[in-house]
Protein 1
Amino acid sequence: MLKVLDIGHSNYSLDTALSILETEVSQAMYSGRVKAIKIIHGHGTGALRKAVRQWCEDQQGRFRAVIPGEDYDLFHADSIAMRQECNLPYDPDFGRKNRAVTYLWLW
């Protein structure tokens, strides 16, 4: 199952957005039902994207993979494997090089 988490369109502060991200990721991992999370951080100034990706980097080893939206395509091995495991037949961002999203593939 893929969970979509939109923290980019609510005018959250960076701290609030990252706090929501941590809470949602922890709950998803604890539930065991969610296999991947699509984080929508938006384009904007890029500050939230950078903060989210830095947070992901700081969590190294916690996730099977972190896939930036610009890498989420047919030629990215983790993208293909995650889509197969989550049974994702369609995602409008697949192959679009969309910098406004980041995917977390959970263990």
Protein 2
Amino acid sequence: MANEFSLKYGCNPNQKPARIFMKDGSELPIEVLGGRPGYINFLDAFNSWQLVCELKIATGLPAATSFKHVSPAGAALGLPLSDVLKKIYYVDDLELTPVACAYARARGADRMSSYGDFIALSDTCDEQTATLIAREVSDGIIAPGYTDKALEILKSKRKGTYNIIRIDESYKPAEIEVKDVFGITFEQGRNELKIDDNIFNNIVTDSKDLPESAKRDMIVSLITLKYTQSNSVCYVKDGQAIGIGAGQQSRIHCTRLAGNKADTWHLRQHEKVLNLPFKDNIRRPDRDNTIDIYISDDYEDVLADGIWQNIFTSKPEAFTREEKKEYLSKIDGVTLGSDAFFPFGDNIERAKRSGVKYIVQPGGSIRDDNVIETCNKYNMTMACTGIRLFHH
């Protein structure tokens, strides 16, 4: 290890020189085992590493995240996958270890956004996880260690240029963090807030039903939000994020964006999507793009234009708006977290359309009564933590 690492350039090619280094002269807590990570790669790596570490500590389960442009596209715990999830994540031909399950879930939450992701694993990367990663389009990975076989597989990816970072899991950063903007130095205490199920005690709705599975999903949501560019909301189901909205100026737009992603995740499991007659030579990214179009309301135009002949062995039936609405109306048990208070009940109305049953948010809006009233209308359970999780 060394105390600095030279970068090809910063955020953009015109931003030179660029490096990462330890101001106190100590060694960097990372070792680059493959490739040459760039400025944004390291931003993704260090933010994503914190996320998976906190998930592992809070739940005791292996965790993984898929990062793009300093926000997670997916985050998940290493829980077993159903046969349907294995199919839509393209892993039904693999034997999956818990850490491999975690990454399959993280990658599968929003496969379009995860294209070219940076991966973080809370645990040692094993052969099964490396095999999964090897066949996806990805920029790099950070983990506390790699088995010999996993490292061999990853080093062969992208003709040997795949970015592989090993981090010292005992590393503890300074309590005060600084950054420069426009030549001016900002300083603040690190956000060391501990998120566990002890912060969900203030349930403000008529419904007080909050099963352990929902508490776990609230933990996943809040820790994910802690490392997502604000404004942000996160929908979670069965230990994995299924829709993340990041960096929106309006919270309702954030809730809609993440809700649409959650809806797509659910609709990918519909039998019409599962049985689409793809030609054998269609690559996974092209399948993902096609599925996204098929689920959208524009697909009937694609059918009419005859483009389907390049993709499918036979013409598929359109997935009608009525069919999608009916399917989504049966979804239930989804958890929604927000990094700051919901200012209006319209966020709750939108959340209901995506099967949300449990909500966690800071509270503190002058319109809390309206938000609570809207939750009560749908028999939702909402906990207010009093904790804001802005990340900039």
